[in-house]
Amino acid sequence: MLRIVDTRTGHLVEIPSVRRHLLSICVHLPADDVGFVLGDLRALLVGDVLARTAELHGLQARTFRTVPDLPPEQAEALDRALSALGVHPPHTVGVHHPNGTLCAAADVHVHACGTAAQEGVGGVLVDVGQVGPASPESGVPDRVHLLAPGFLDAVVPEGTDPLAVRMLMLGHAHRVPVTVTGTAFDEARRTLRDWRQLVADWAQEPSGPIPADVLRHAHAVLADDLGVPAVLDLLATVATRGDVPAGAKFETFAFLDRVLGLDLAREVGHQHRAAT
């Protein structure tokens, strides 16, 4: 059973309807086109993780996106940036419409901070916490204008793996505000690098089953209001457990990366190629 807090009531509700096995998710971005803030990208990331979690729990998921009426080159720039951040393409992209036709029947509506909910639209409402203005040392602007060649460069500090931005966001519950700092980016970069190296090392050992207690806990926290930060904590613990064989650690990280989308197996095989 997959549950998430409905912003309207503050209570956990089961999604989707028990009569169906398809979860329909609509991510709503602000209707203006003066530029996206990092919180808007975070809403798209939350929708992506929710879809991945649903699929891990045996549901089919379809995502929709409502966006401003963007010129083609700006829409393409946004798509390239989201691809770099590991966000799967939506089933449908539509321009904002006053009656919300595109997403009216969605099971879950994910709203970027400051995006008003449509009146009379059913489904679960999920408001994503804002991302605070970046501090000067982070190098990331608060508001990013959609200029075709430079959009991704504006979102991601120079020399940073874009997925480190994803990891930074995943480290916070989706309803909790995030303050972006250079220190936070450094920590996300370092953890991502270290985990990829560990996964590459573990991949050279015989495979082993994911520990039952780890699997149960991961499913439980993800099913309970999308507890992705708890999954990251779980992986950090598994990485240091002496009672879990290396091959089982590899399988655990690879399995949960289906939700995290951090490309944790990126370095697998690199040592072998270097040696030859």
SSE arrangement:
Blueprint: E1 2-6, E2 11-15, E3 22-28, E4 36-37, H1 38-56, E5 60-67, H2 72-84, E6 92-95, E7 108-111, E8 124-127, E9 131-132, E10 143-144, H3 151-155, H4 162-170, E11 178-179, H5 182-202, H6 212-223, H7 228-240, H8 246-260, H9 270-275
Parallel strand pairs: 3-5, 3-7, 5-6, 7-8, 9-11
Antiparallel strand pairs: 1-2, 4-10
Helix pairs in contact: 4-5, 5-8, 6-7, 7-8
Description:
There is one protein chain. With 276 residues, the chain is an alpha/beta fold. It has 2 domains: 2-160, Rossmann fold (3-Layer(aba) Sandwich); 185-275, Up-down Bundle (Four Helix Bundle (Hemerythrin (Met), subunit A)). It contains 9 helices and 11 strands. The chain has helices spanning 38-56, 72-84, 151-155, 162-170, 182-202, 212-223, 228-240, 246-260, 270-275; strands at residues 2-6, 11-15, 22-28, 36-37, 60-67, 92-95, 108-111, 124-127, 131-132, 143-144, 178-179. The strands form 4 sheets. Strands 6-5-3-7-8 form a 5-stranded parallel β-sheet, covered by helices on one side. A hairpin with a 4-residue loop joins β1 and β2 (11-15). α6 (212-223) packs antiparallel against α7 and α7 (228-240) runs antiparallel to α8 (246-260). It is globular, with a radius of gyration of 19 Å. It starts with a strand and ends with a helix. Residues 138-149 have low confidence and may be disordered.
